[in-house]
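Translate sequence into structure tokens.
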Amino acid sequence: MAETENNEPETPDEAEAPAAEAPAPEAESAAPSQPVEVVAPRERRRRARATKAAQSRTRKARTPEERQAERVEERRRKAEARRVERTRSREKARSARTGGADTESTPAREHGPGRQKTRQGVVVSDKADKTITVRIDVTRRHRRYEKIVRVSNTLHAHDEANDAHIGDTVILRECRPLSRLKRWRLVEVVERAE
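Result follows.
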């Protein structure tokens, strides 16, 4: 009971620390002998919700400014991750397109100022006077799924001489509006129907 001035009584924290460390090896050795509790998924979710609710109750209240700053930081982090992923996918697509060779050449655009579009298609109707209906078939590879996609649309074109007939393959050129539907003009008949 006689304590010297140099030996102060242990604080409660120091007294508990060795005691807490001692049972740990016993608990580790005892854990494998006990059967592992199997928890149903619903029960696991319920416990997780309860734990989260308990944590939110014990967490100190944040000001609206702190919550907003946290949201802004989260958005910034996600935007950075999206940017990295998009850059990676673009590089991958570019290398797949060029066969590994990384060339930075953009194809010439079909349509520009003062340049009219041209289309090739098959005549599906020539009943109207000086007008033909042409089906344009486009086959292309889907950008994401790589599947071949076939799309067709019909254009009404002006045929001044009633030259084209059903089944002919023709070339059309864009022009000013000639009627409610006609915005194309017949350039030439490439192949006649038999």
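Note: Residues 11-25 have pLDDT under 50 and may be disordered.
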